[in-house]
Specification:
With 187 residues, the protein is an all-alpha fold. Helices cover 70% and strands 0% of the residues. InterPro entries: Homeodomain-like_sf, HTH_TetR, Tet_transcr_reg_TetR-rel_C_sf, TetR_C.
């Protein structure tokens, strides 16, 4: 993730540079292969110098990871469909659709390709927070629920593994099989 420097104004020049560079990466990703992207090319597209990017992100892997993490930020809280199972099913179907897509695959590769960054942990926290919202609702309704860690181990982890390491085209049926196993074994 980009470095946070004390004293910078939110929305100031620093934020404008970050936005321009992030948009340049997204634009270039849409028009070319990942392997062709370079910091000088991104800098030119963003209207900044390459040294600005190197100073702020250090390397291409860190920049791509930062952009991916920003794209992975949820737009909203999980919807409330009235029950733990319905809430988790709807959330996981959306998660599946987003990450099993070609764009989602590239985002996951970018996040996981930089071992120096804490973006992977932040990605884990984003998922955990979304799941905790669903669990908290179930607790308020006095419903049975499944803990975050178990949900991640039973449905999220296998899905991410298949997305990253299999060429198999995943269908929604796969997501439903994972959910069925989770609900049958743990609810």
């Amino acid at each position: 993730m980009s470095k946070v420097v004390a004293g910078l104004r939110p929305g100031g020049r620093s934020a404008r540079i970050q936005e321009a560079v992030h948009q340049a990466v997204l634009d270039l990703q849409a028009s070319m292969d990942h392997a062709q992207m370079t910091i000088p090319l991104i800098a030119k597209q963003a209207g900044v110098t390459p040294s600005t990017i190197y100073r702020r992100w250090g390397c291409l892997a860190t920049l791509l990871s930062d952009v991916a993490l920003a794209k992975l930020q949820p737009d909203s809280m999980p919807q409330d469909y009235g029950s733990f199972q319905a809430d988790l099913t709807a959330w996981f179907e959306q998660y599946f659709e987003e990450y099993s897509s070609e764009v989602g695959h590239h985002l996951l590769v970018d996040i996981s390709s930089n071992p120096e960054s804490d973006d992977r942990e932040q990605c884990y926290e984003l998922v955990s927070q979304q799941l905790q919202v669903i669990i908290d609702r179930a607790k308020q309704r006095n419903e049975p629920y499944i803990e975050v860690q178990l949900i991640i181990e039973i449905i999220i982890s296998p899905l991410i593994y298949m997305i990253l390491f299999s060429k198999k085209q995943l269908e929604m049926d796969y997501a439903h099989q994972l959910l069925k196993r989770l609900f049958e074994d743990y609810l």
